[in-house]
Amino acid sequence: GDPGPEGDPGLTECDVMNYIRETCGCCDCEKRCGALDIVFVIDSSESVGLTNFTLEKNFVINTINRLGSFAKDPKSETGTRVGVVQYSHSGTFQAIRLNDPKIDSLTSFKEAVKRLEWIAGGTWTPSALKYAYDNLIRDSRRANANVTVVVITDGRFDPRDDDTLLTYLCNAPNVDVSAIGIGDMFEQIEENESLKSIACQKDDRVMGMRRFADLVAEEFIDKIETVLCPEPLIVCPDLPCKSEPAVASCVQRPVEVIFMLDGSERMGQENYNRAKEFIENVARRLTLANGPTDERNARLALLQYGSASEQTVGFPLTHDLTVISDSLGNMTYMDSFSALGSAIIYAVNNLVIKENRRLARRNAEVSFVFITDGITSDNQLDEGVSAMKRAEGVPTVIALGGDTDEEVLRKVSLGDSSAIFRGDGFAVLNKPAFFERFIRWIC
């Protein structure tokens, strides 16, 4: 017979590379900041609270995400190495060391940060500065590396501590120090002077803010990024995608994941079904706790909400995959209105705490995952966010589609734009890149 019609042209090399970049996100241009040794000194005292301590850890992770090439070998002369000191009362220092051979990738560093547990004691800031230099910097700094210390504290230090140690890092050669004070008290002259002492009297290295949530705000991360890496080199390699090795999920610490599923008419039955499938996939992907008293691993809960008086507990906090799967199968779509504030209050009072009894495990991170476009009644929204913060809740938002209420999303995410997961539609929930990024974030 006659030759058939000419077919469509095949994919070009650019098409293939674009597909790879969109799928795995690992062929993008890379920021290189030279050899950096960075040490975060973070306040883990009782006054900070678990929620704010988690925000401190998120700040550390979000900042390092910006700095490009991570040293794969702690002895390497190039790349970024990061250490963390968390401190509370005398002698209660915990550290991630700059030269830890187990910290050989950004993933392993994030895992180490997330394993840090709130100490909840006093505030011995001067001693923490001495500890940071003596144990993390002095003997392990690289000769050609820029050394920067970022100190975060929420208040005055214990008077029993040695205040002459506030300037301890200023006596160290070639160490740049930034001090971040959080809370109204730093508006007082004497307290601001203590921050200046920490920062070696450099006014541009003293930063104050009223709330811990401001730590993870995009504009503040931009500011810190400029301090840590003022003149980055942008390199765009033409390399095949590589992925970091998979890590176990939520096995090193207790995590309570509470899904808040919008059951309003805007959701639609098809998207509702996709959201339920996503929740079950998360349950199957995470390492679930062995029981209600397991001090590691994850438990899940689900609340579907509609109007101010419509809240349905799909399942309370549980480690039982069968319960999760069966409950999801039995849940029906509300097809109602949306009152997110009332739903948060209900979740706190019925899933986290009930009749003055805490249902979440002691020392567990309580992670609220909101599946919503943010278009909701503003009634009791502020009260709901406050209730979540009092319950030491850490928010994550999944906002899909182009029609969203950005003000509500910012409020619910406590101003942390990196905690908002976006996509064109609910089909993205089944995309491996989106799913794995969500799992890494939660854990």
UniProtKB/TrEMBL annotation:
One of its GO terms (cellular component) is collagen trimer. Coiled coil: none annotated. PROSITE patterns: VWFA. One of its GO terms (molecular function) is extracellular matrix structural constituent conferring tensile strength. The keyword Signal applies. It comes from the Eukaryota. SUPFAM superfamilies: vWA-like. SMART domains: VWA. The keyword Membrane applies. Residues 37-224, 256-438 form the VWFA domain. The chain crosses the membrane at residues 333-353. Keywords: Collagen, Membrane, Signal, Transmembrane, Transmembrane helix. Collagen VI acts as a cell-binding protein. Belongs to the type VI collagen family. PANTHER family: VWFA DOMAIN-CONTAINING PROTEIN. This is Collagen, type VI, alpha 2. It comes from Nothobranchius kadleci (African annual killifish).
